[in-house]
Each structure stands twice: as structure tokens, then as C-alpha cells.
Design goal:
mainly alpha; Fic-like fold; two-stranded antiparallel ribbon; 7 helices; 2 strands; ATP-binding; Fido; EC 2.7.7.108; transferase; nucleotide-binding
């Protein structure tokens, strides 16, 4: 993260609707509330066009009870490590427009055989992760978003079976342009509905 961060208090805790001032307490509340929201989304799909606005709606649904800025694009640059900088905030909308236009041009991955679906899912997972449009909650939001897209395309993604370390390693490689580890990860997670 670079520069001033308007999303955190003086102790470095994300500003939240719950008035929680402890990072660990906020993390627990966020986990509990976002899990409940994601379960609702798995039963009641969120209509949309699988574009940036739709992704923002997912974030708002998942984190709206916790953060006042849920669903809003971040206004600060962030990084996973000193080397892995996500999309600069000034370019989120323009870069996203291209990614989501490509997804639409590919028919939102409908009608693909499993191997093709896995390869394209890895591509878009890597792209959406690189955009990282929100200050917090990007991973859960993209998993809910792509999980629904997968169901619409006839595939179930077994997120609960995902290995966190494998995801981190594969996502870091994708930030460098290599989605082969993501494709390998999705090989074990994608199943027909």
C-alpha cells in the first residue's frame, strides 16, 4: 500500500460500520458476516451483466454490513507484497472495461468443455485478482462472482476444497502473467453441475 490510506483509523484498523477498533475482532466479525452473505448469494443469484458494476454489487452484498465503502472502487494503490502491486486505482475502470468486454465476447464461458472452461476461468480469475478493485474483500468477492458465472455456464467450483497456499502461489504467478498454476488449481475444483 502506498501513501495515505483513508480506509483505516490511526491504529491501522479498517474503518467499519460496527465501530470495531481491534483488527482481530474486525476480522472475526467480517468473516462471520461475509460467510452468511455468501451463503445467501449461493441460494439467491445476483442478477447482472458480469461486468465491473456486477462485481461491485457482489462486494456490496458481501461486505455491506461491515464497511461503509462496500461496493465502491478503492481510491488508494495496494500491493500484496513489495513486488506484487495490483492495478493502480486510477486505471481500475479502464482496465476492467477491457477484461469484462473480453468475458462478454467469450459468451461468459458458456458452452465450453471442461478443459476450455478451466483454462478461461484461470485467465479471468487472474485478471480480476490483478484488478483488485476493492480495499478489502477482493478474494471472496471474485470467488462469489466467478462461482455464479460458473454455475450459469454449467460448472460448479468447489471453493471449499481450495488450498489457500496453492491459491496464493498461483495468484502471485498470475500477477506475473503465468496462469498455469491457477489452471492446475482449478483442475481439482471444477465439476459439472
Amino acid at each position: 500500500m502506498t501513501g495515505e490510506d483513508p480506509y483505516v483509523d490511526t491504529k491501522g484498523v479498517l474503518l467499519n460500520k460496527l465501530d470495531i477498533t481491534s483488527s482481530s475482532a474486525l476480522s472475526q466479525a467480517e468473516t462471520d458476516l461475509s460467510l452468511a452473505a455468501m451463503l445467501r448469494l449461493s441460494v439467491h443469484p445476483l442478477p447482472g451483466s458480469y461486468d465491473l458494476g456486477h462485481l461491485q454489487s457482489f462486494h456490496r452484498q458481501i461486505f455491506g454490513a461491515v464497511y461503509p465503502w462496500a461496493g465502491e472502487l478503492r481510491t488508494v494503490d495496494i500491493a500484496r507484497t513489495g513486488q506484487d502491486v495490483f492495478c493502480r486505482c486510477a486505471f481500475i475502470e479502464s482496465y476492467s472495461a477491457g477484461v469484462f468486454a473480453d468475458l462478454a465476447a467469450e459468451g461468459r464461458l458458456m458452452g465450453l468443455r471442461r478443459n476450455a472452461f478451466v483454462a478461461r476461468l484461470a485467465h479471468y480469475y487472474g485478471e480480476i485478482n490483478a484488478i483488485h478493485p476493492f480495499r478489502e474483500g477482493n478474494g471472496r468477492t471474485q470467488r462469489a462472482f466467478l462461482g455464479q458465472l460458473g454455475r450459469d455456464a454449467g460448472w460448479r467450483i468447489a471453493w471449499s476444497a481450495m488450498d489457500g497456499h496453492q491459491n496464493d502461489t498461483a495468484s502471485a504467478a498470475a500477477l506475473q502473467g503465468d496462469t498455469t498454476l491457477l489452471a492446475t488449481m482449478f483442475e481439482s475444483l471444477v465439476r459439472p453441475i
